[in-house]
Amino acid sequence: MSEQDYLKNELEALQLAIKTELEIRKFYLDNAEKMKNELAKKTFIFLADEELRHIDAIHAFNKSIKEGTEPEIDAGTEDEAINRGKEFFATSMKAITEKTIASEDDIKVYEMGLQMEQNGYNFYQKAANKAKHPNVKKLFEFLMKEENAHYALISNAINYLKSPDDFFQDQESWFFEG
Predict the structure, then answer these.
(1) Which tops the pLDDT comparison, 7 or 156?
(2) Residue 103 belongs to domain with CATH number
(3) How does residue 177 score in pLDDT terms, banded at 50, 70 and 90?
(4) pLDDT tens, position by position, 19-73
(5) What is the largest CA-CA distance in the chain?
(6) What is the structure's pLDDT at 11?
(7) Which among 21, 169, 155 is positioned nearest to 85, based on CA atoms?
(8) Rounded to two decimals, what is the model's pTM?
(9) What 8-state DSSP symbol labels residue 68?
(10) DSSP secondary structure of the chain
(11) Which domain holds residue 131?
């Protein structure tokens, strides 16, 4: 089997990844509309946009395979993904003038988001472990890092939304220096 044939077989996993990312994006957008808490809403919209980044990366990877070129992905570092979430959350919190506790319904939706990100991470981890081509493996590792960063963002957002005052004491080092 040639390398190109192998990569074509990997398209099934990549197509499933696109489908998953689209479903997660829809989940975030649908629930953002229902959120009463402004920070909760903004976070879900940010995460929906992040899912588009993933889809674009997978599409670019697929395109290179179809064109017969060597597919590449810049997996970046775990810090890059985490830092995007930190920057978004810090900026959004500064823009919110009123500290409000989210409703139980909002928290439950956030917990569903946590589970979706965990499921995505698990899927990408299995796919990375099965991948034989180094660039396919790198793509799935990139997606794992992204899902992990989203999980961290949602987890910290839940802590903030449950108790804004306690959040600053408990999580200060995650988002804020000094």
Answers:
(1) 156
(2) 1.20.1260.10
(3) very low
(4) 999 999 999 999 999 988 888 888 999 999 999 988 988 888 878 777 777 766 7
(5) 60
(6) 72
(7) 155
(8) 0.79
(9) T
(10) --HHHHHHHHHHHHHHHHHHHHHHHHHHHHHHHH--SHHHHHHHHHHHHHHHHHHHHHHHHHHHHHTTS--------HHHHHHHHHHHHHHHHHH--S--PPPHHHHHHHHHHHHHHHHHHHHHHHHHHH--SHHHHHHHHHHHHHHHHHHHHHHHHHHHHH-HHHHHHHSHHHH---
(11) 3-175
Q: In the numeric block, which tokens belong to residue 18? A: 């696109």
Give CA–CA dist 112/106, Å, rounded. 10
Contact 71, 135 (CB under 8 A): yes
125, two tokens: 């981890």
**Domains in the chain, number:** 1
